[in-house]
Amino acid sequence: MSFQRRRYPYYNRLRRLLPLVFAVSLSLLVLFAFLSFLAPHPGDSDRLPPRLRHTSINIGGGSDSIKSAAFRVPRDGGRSDRDVWRSRNAEFFYGCSNASTKFPNSKAVTRNDRYLAIATSGGLNQQRTGIVDAVVAARILNATLVVPKLDQKSYWKDASDFSHIFDVDWFVSFLSDDVRVIKQLPQKGGRPWSPSRMRVPRKCNERCYINRVLPVLHKRHAVQLNKFDYRLSNKLSDELQKLRCRVNYHALKFTDPILKMGNELVRRMRLRSKHFIALHLRFEPDMLAFSGCYYGGGDKERRELAAIRRRWKTLHINNPEKQRRQGRCPLTPEEVGLMLRALGYGSDVHIYVASGEVYGGEESLAPLKALFPHFYSKDTIATKEELEPFASYSSRMAALDFLVCDESDVFVTNNNGNMAKILAGRRRYFGHKPTVRPNAKKLYRLFLNKENTTWEEFTSRVRSFQRGFMGEPKEVRAGRGEFHENPSTCICEDTEAKAKAQIESRKLGKKNKSTNKDTAAAVVTVPNDGQSEEDEPDWSEPDYEEEQSDLQDRGLYNGTSLDYDDPSTSDEPELEEMLSD
To answer: Where does the record place the region Disordered (predicted)?
Structure first.
C-alpha cells in the first residue's frame, strides 16, 4: 500500500506535464515549418549557377579588397600577347562597296509606274535593317522607293519618323544613282494614293520578290510591304550586297542634332581617357524575359519575368539550363567584368555603358563597378538639359548610344541582337575595330566553376575561348551569319601591302636571330582558326527557298500564300523586336 501511495502522485504529476510537453512540441514544429516556408528553395541558390547572388571576389588585395578565399582578381590586366586596343592585321583590310560598271544607273532601269513603300518594324536597329533591305528590294523590282515609314506603334511607342532620326535629303541624293527615292507617293486623280498592302516571307530572295510582289506592282502600281524586317535573303548577287553596304554605311546618316550630341559624348569620353570600351550590357528585364533564362533570383525573379513574357502570346517557355548551355543567355554584369579583366583590361580602363534599366539595379552593377570604377553612361556625362530633346524618344536615345559604341576603341556586346550585329558589321567595314562578343557556350561552364580554379588558369581559358570572337579579320567565314553582321562581300584585302609587311617581318626576324642567338626567346604565333560552329548559338532562320522546300516536304505548302495583310492582324510585337536595342 505504501508503494501505491508513493506511485500515484508521480503519475498524477506526469499526466499534468504531458499536455504542456505536447503544446511546446507542436509550437516548435509549427515554427520550423514556417521558417522552412520562408527560406529560399535550394534550387534557387545552390543547384543553379549563382548568377545574381554575387560571389565574393578579391580584387588585388589590400584594405579595400572584396574578401575571398582563393579566386583573386588582379587590378591590372596582366600580360597579353596582343594589343588590346586594336585587331591583328586590321591595316590590311578595308571597306569596298562601290558599284561596278556592270551595275546600271537607276535612271536606266527604274519604271515610272512602280512605287514601293515600306513600313518597318521593331526598334531603331531592327528598323535600320528594314530600311537597308527596302532599297535593295526596290532595285530588284525596278521601282521608285518611298522614304520608309518607321514603326510608331509597337513596344517602344516612339513617334519619330524617318526625318527625325536620319538625314533624309542626304539619303535621297546619295542613292540617286542606285535607286530613285521620293519622300511621299504622288497623288492619284487629285487625291492621296493609297497603296496595296502586303507582306513577304522572311529571307525572301530575288526570285521571291519577282514572283510575289512584281505581279501586284504591275496591277496596282503602288505596294506597301508591312512588318518589313529581315525580309531579304542573305544570299544575293555581289552587286546587290554592295548596294546593301552603300545604304548601311554611307546613305544612312543621323540628323545633325543627333550627330552633334553623339560626337560630344565621344569627346567627353576621350577627355577622360585616350582609350575607352563601350559596353552594350543588354541586361534589361525585357531581354531576360525574352531569353527565358534564369539568374538565381528565386520566385520573385520568376514572377517578374513571367509577367513581362505575357506580352508575347507566341513566346515559347524554354528550359533555362538548356538556354544557358546553348549560349543564349546574356552574361551578368559581374561575368562581363571578369571576362574583360581576363582579356587584359585593367581597373584603370574607362567604360561607357549603353543600357536601359538593368535588372537588379545597382546590386547587379556593383561587381562590375568594383572591377571597373571608371564607369559612365550618357546620363552621367551629359546634363539632363542636354538630353531633354532626345529623352522622350527611345530611337533617338538609342542613336546616341549607337554613335558612342561605333566610335569606341573596343565594343563589347552581351547578346546577338540587332544593334550588336549592325555594329559588328560596321566596325568590320571601317577597319576591323575590336568587337568582343562573349563565347557564352564555353564561358558558361567556366563561370560556373570559377571558385575552383586559379585566376591564371581562368585567364588562360577565357583568352582561348574568345579566340574567334574578337572582331578580327577573317574570323568569320564569308557568307556565314547575317549579312549585316558579316558583310564579307564589301571587305577587301590589300594583298600587296600584306605581302610587303610579311617580307619586312621575315627580314627583321632574321636580323634579330643573328644578333640575339643566345638570348632570344621563341615566340609562337597561334593562327586564328575563327569561330567554331559548335560555339555559335543558332540564331539563324532558313532562307525563303529553304523554307518553302521544307514546307513542301511536310505537305504544308502548295505554292500559294496569303500575301495581303489581314486587317484583323494583331499588333503584338514580333519576337525579334526584343533583340533590337
So the answer is: 506-581
Distance CA 501, CA 92 (A): 10
For residues 286-299, b (16+ Cβ closer than 10 Å) or e, as one string?
bbbbbbbbbbbbbe
pTM of whole model > 0.85? no
Task: With CA atoms as reference, report the closest residue to 416 among 472, 484, 362, 366.
Answer: 484
**Hey, which bits of 384-433 come out as E strands?**
410-413
Expressed in percent and rounded to 5, the helix, strand and coil fractions of the chain are 45, 10, 45
Over residues 504-515, the pLDDT tens digits come to 666 666 555 554
CA-wise closest residue to 123 among 156, 99, 146, 101: 156
Beta strands in 32-120 (DSSP E): 58-59, 72-73, 93-95, 115-118
What does the pLDDT read at residue 576? 45
The tens digit of pLDDT for each residue in 65-104 reads: 444 446 789 998 888 778 999 999 999 999 999 999 999 9
Nearest in space to 225 (alpha carbons), one of 165, 294, 140: 140
Between strands 93-95 and 196-198, the pairing is unpaired
Per-residue pLDDT of 454-471, as tens digits, reads 999 999 999 999 999 999
The length of the chain, given as a count of residues? 581
Quote the CA–CA distance of 266 and 352 in Å, as a whole number: 10
Whether the Cβ atoms of residue 540 and residue 481 lie closer than 8 Å to each other: yes
Mean pLDDT, all residues of the chain:
81
Provide the pLDDT for residue 317. 75
Q: Which three cell numbers stand for residue 527?
A: 593562327
Q: Specify whether the CB–CB gap between 408 and 353 falls below 8 A.
A: no
d(CA 254, CA 401): 12
Query: In the structure, what pLDDT confidence band is assigned to residue 204 with cuts at 50, 70 and 90?
Result: very high
Q: Please say whether the beta carbons of 283 and 359 come within 8 A.
A: yes
HEC profile of 171-221: HHHHCCCCCCEECCCCCECCECCCCEEECCCCCCCHHHHHHHCHHHHHHHC
Q: For residues 170 and 251, is the Cβ–Cβ distance under 8 A?
A: yes
Cell 571578369 belongs to which residue? 338
Closest CA to 179 of 256, 255, 239: 239
Helix axis angle, 394-407 to 384-391, nearest 10°: 120
pLDDT at 313: 73
How many other C-beta atoms lie within 10 A of the C-beta of residue 11?
9
Pairing verdict, β 276-280 and 222-225: unpaired
Which phi and psi angles does 254 have, rounded to 5°? -65, 155
Q: For strands 350-354 and 375-376, give the pairing.
A: parallel
510: cell is 632574321
- How confident is the model at residue 44, as a pLDDT? 40
Q: What is the pLDDT of residues 207-246, one digit of tens each?
A: 999 999 999 999 999 999 999 999 999 999 999 999 999 9
Alpha-carbon span 434 to 428, nearest angstrom: 9
Euclidean distance between CA atoms 412 and 447, whole angstroms: 18
